[in-house]
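Chain A, query sequence.
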Amino acid sequence: MKKNAIIGVAVVVLVLIGGIAYTAMNHVQPGKSATNVTPPIRNRANTTTTVTSSLQTTTQSTTSIQSTTTISSQQNSTLQTQNPTDFIVVNPVNLAQISQISKFRSCSGHDYSGYDVQGYPETQRSMKHYFYPTQQFHGTVGKIQEYAPFNGTIESMAEEQTPVGKQVWIGYTQSGPMFGFAPIGVWNAVFFHLDPIAGLSVGAHVTAGELIGYANQTAPVNQTFDIALEEYNGSNGNYHQVLDSIFNHMDSQVLSEYAAVGVTPNGIIIPKAYRDANPCNFNIYNPNDTVTLT
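Chain A, predicted structure.
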């Protein structure tokens, strides 16, 4: 009887030790997966730089208007870039015609989101800037000038989903592998609701400061127009939309023009952590989503 009790105790002890060992080998910290998902650090240099990311898209619908990405896993992909850091050398708008600008990651307008430059997917936020003309330009056509912010190439010119003006993409450079109409890893300034000047066409080269057209302010977009900065990136056919604020890529001269009217990068860009903690409701107006020019 005593011998059987000793054997029973020994079995229990072995089971407990095995359970502890299994737990230790398979333990994953809260919020982590068993796969290393360290995000990439984007290195913006004048030459192509390859950076390892831990994010991959599995479903993607791409049109001339916007890319929609569905994230279902976190695996390795490759990001490339062909852009210098401060390549926006001319203000794309005439600030004398502008009263307010929406913040990057604001809840203005509608959801316009994708990956950020660190390789993280973002959703339910506006990752572009809306420009609000002064009242005298509401509803106008052919009045609000827009300019090429850098030397580049017209990559695309398509009708808008809301049939007001065109959506015009200007690529910083045109070299390397392509995804659709855009070179992979190349920033594009995207102008929404633009009436291009006569003669502007896909493939044309534009010079920084060149007039490219006018914001179309007819209904239903009669009080705003918008500008985004985006590129396509990835590898092995899995490409996704990367978005950033134009204010992160302006040179000191352009930044000084905005600083003179009270607009700074810190004030015009909402941090990702804040937006993650405060999701957008696009049906509610929030005055904190915009900066008023002084």
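The CA atoms of residues 150 and 208 lie 4 Å apart. The longest strand covers residues 225-235.
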